[in-house]
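testing teh design pipeline on a random one, pls ignore if ur not involved
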């Protein structure tokens, strides 16, 4: 399968690197990382030990591809979609954090769009080197915007799932991705802004005041999901949060890493999405979103 991975940061490089063991992969990312991959190789370390040689470019230069895997920051999804629109694609899969990415892709692409979540953990080490910090799964299926063509999209999702599986990626295909997307949002809303603002690893959310705050954010997401017609009960959201905190205790969340590096965060697609779409008050998410946005504004990132 010809695969383009748009957004070859830590997660994109991990997924793309694993796919490159069995497929023809083009990574689209930024220098100096893609320069190192192009000139030498991509090394996956940590819980994996792989050296692969995918194509690596800073600008998409393909006329067509079987699959586009989009792993950019949520606020870059529109720009990625505009670039991918110039490529003849059979299907696109979003693995980006936050909500609303599939809608953005579907508005700009003529191919079917799949939604996906992943529990794989990745951390950028140096140009050409990404560490796998957690071996997990990829869950994918028809995007919520694809209801009119759900059967065809589900068949495509199974094809993509098989392509992932032969490359050693544990993939599960779901007929309805909405519960998975909202559950992932509950975890992200609990983990990302709390760890970023407190400057702590994920394991600090296992007990104490941080746990109470993280659970409060996650439970607000569960309530917003139910109001939107998605069956996500409080115990499921609380359990998902607890499992991720335990499994990634030593990790620094992506939002924590963004704050450390002085980068814009994905708060608008996480806590901000909850605030904008909840049918009722969500004081924890509102407060967390306001604090992270204040940090961004003070540094000219908004």
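output:
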């Amino acid at each position: 399968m010809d695969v383009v991975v748009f957004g070859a940061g830590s997660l994109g490089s991990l997924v793309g690197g694993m796919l490159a063991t069995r497929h023809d992969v083009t990574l689209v990312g930024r220098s100096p990382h893609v320069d190192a991959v192009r000139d030498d190789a991509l090394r996956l370390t940590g819980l994996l030990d792989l050296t692969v040689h995918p194509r690596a470019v800073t600008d998409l230069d393909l006329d067509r591809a079987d699959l586009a895997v989009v792993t950019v920051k949520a606020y870059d999804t529109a720009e990625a979609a505009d670039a991918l629109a110039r490529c003849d694609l059979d299907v696109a899969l979003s693995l980006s954090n936050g909500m609303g990415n599939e809608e953005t892709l579907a508005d700009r692409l003529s191919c079917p769009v799949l939604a996906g979540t992943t529990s794989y953990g990745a951390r950028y080490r140096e140009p050409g080197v990404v560490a796998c910090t957690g071996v997990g799964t990829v869950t994918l299926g028809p995007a919520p915007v694809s209801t009119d063509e759900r059967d065809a999209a589900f068949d495509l999702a199974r094809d993509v799932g098989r392509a992932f599986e032969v490359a050693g990626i544990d993939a599960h295909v779901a007929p309805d991705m909405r519960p998975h997307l909202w559950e992932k949002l509950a975890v992200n809303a609990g983990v990302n802004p709390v760890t970023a603002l407190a400057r702590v690893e994920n394991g600090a959310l296992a007990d104490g005041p941080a746990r109470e705050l993280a659970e409060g954010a996650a439970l607000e997401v569960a309530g917003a999901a139910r109001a939107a017609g998605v069956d996500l009960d409080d115990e499921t959201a609380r359990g998902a949060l607890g499992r991720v905190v335990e499994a990634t205790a030593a990790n620094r969340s992506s939002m924590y890493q963004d704050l450390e590096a002085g980068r814009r965060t994905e708060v608008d697609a996480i806590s901000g999405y909850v605030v904008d779409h909840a049918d009722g008050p969500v004081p924890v998410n509102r407060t967390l979103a306001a604090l992270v946005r204040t940090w961004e504004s003070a540094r000219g990132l908004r």
